[in-house]
Amino acid sequence: MDKTDMIANYCKKSGCVFKKNEKLSGYTSFKIGGTADIAVFPKNSLCFAGLMGLIKECGLKYILLGNGSNVLLCENHFCGAAIFTSHMDAVDIQGTKIYAQCGAPLTKLANAAKAHSLSGLEFAYGIPGTVGGAIYMNAGAYGGQMSDIVFMSSYLDADTLEVRNLDAGQHEFAYRESVYGKNGGFALLYAILNLERGDRAEIEAAMEKNMAARKEKQPLEYPSAGSVFKRGEGYYAAKLIEECNLKGCSVGGAEVSEKHAGFIINKGGASFSDVVRLIEHIKSVVFDMTGIEIECEIKIMEW
């Protein structure tokens, strides 16, 4: 039995989804990416750990993806396994705490919190990511961020296959950073978020206000990976890009959004190379005109 069949059999027995020669572009918000030998979708932490152990036993390379919303994937064929956490999306509320698996969408969490009159996740409503990805990069918007509400998390150490927990203070949170971003072998399994009691009508109003702002200011009608560049000390990257007259600048099918200069959009048929070349052009022009080196926020994955 070859390696692929071994993993396929494990998925069949455990109830996990298995796909062969799967196109990855359909799983990313940029709609860009090549194919992978196999794609697997574990349904819970136990299956995730079992699959990871089997993938390592088979000597396969792997990439870990949630909602594919903050990444740019290259278009080369990936000789290995793409592990998607999107089926690990269970959410449970106990008191003021939300227990969420890594693949739970942030909008699902925000809606669950609202239903129980819990405040603290209003900022996350409309962010097209998962709990795992959000904690990985300490996602934030509209005055809130994940570091404000993370109580603890549990992860699988991909090197030792041990499951460990982190308390709130062990996450090493910073702007768009966490211990997970610094340790690529830590695969977050689930997290507990600590919220506060609030007025449901006020929570809903804040969520709707944030969503309206997103629709007004962001090019949601086009595929993108969200805000491409990090905010720097004393400046906003989008403002610098706009001041450098780069709105509408394009390379192939990739374009700096006319609506929000911090977004690169896929106007149709954009390739990995188009986006990378446009990113480098933006960085070069901004540096030449302002002396500031802007840094990417999205994760560029190349193999």
Query: What gross morphology would you assign?
Result: globular
Distance between the ends: 27 Å
As for the CATH topology of the largest domain, it is Uridine Diphospho-n-acetylenolpyruvylglucosamine Reductase, domain 3
CATH class of the largest domain: Alpha Beta
Radius of gyration: 20 Å
Order of SSEs, N→C?
HEEHEEEEEHEHEEEEHEEHEHEEEHE
Average pLDDT metric: 96
Question: Looking across the biggest beta sheet, what order are the strands in?
Answer: 6-7-13-11-12
The proportion of residues in beta strands is 25-35%
Catalogue the unreliable spans. Answer: none
Structural classification: alpha+beta
Going by CATH, the architecture of the largest domain would be 2-Layer Sandwich
Number of helices: 8
Number of strands: 19
What portion of residues is helical? 25-40%
What count of domains describes the coordinates? 3
Please summarize the sheet with the most strands: 5 strands, antiparallel
Description:
This protein has 8 helices and 19 strands. It folds into 3 domains: 3-84, Uridine Diphospho-n-acetylenolpyruvylglucosamine Reductase, domain 2 (2-Layer Sandwich), CATH 3.30.43.10; 91-202, 2-Layer Sandwich (Uridine Diphospho-n-acetylenolpyruvylglucosamine Reductase, domain 3); 219-301, UDP-N-acetylenolpyruvoylglucosamine reductase, C-terminal domain (Uridine Diphospho-n-acetylenolpyruvylglucosamine Reductase, domain 1, Alpha-Beta Complex). With 303 residues, it is of the alpha+beta class. The protein starts with a helix and ends with a strand.
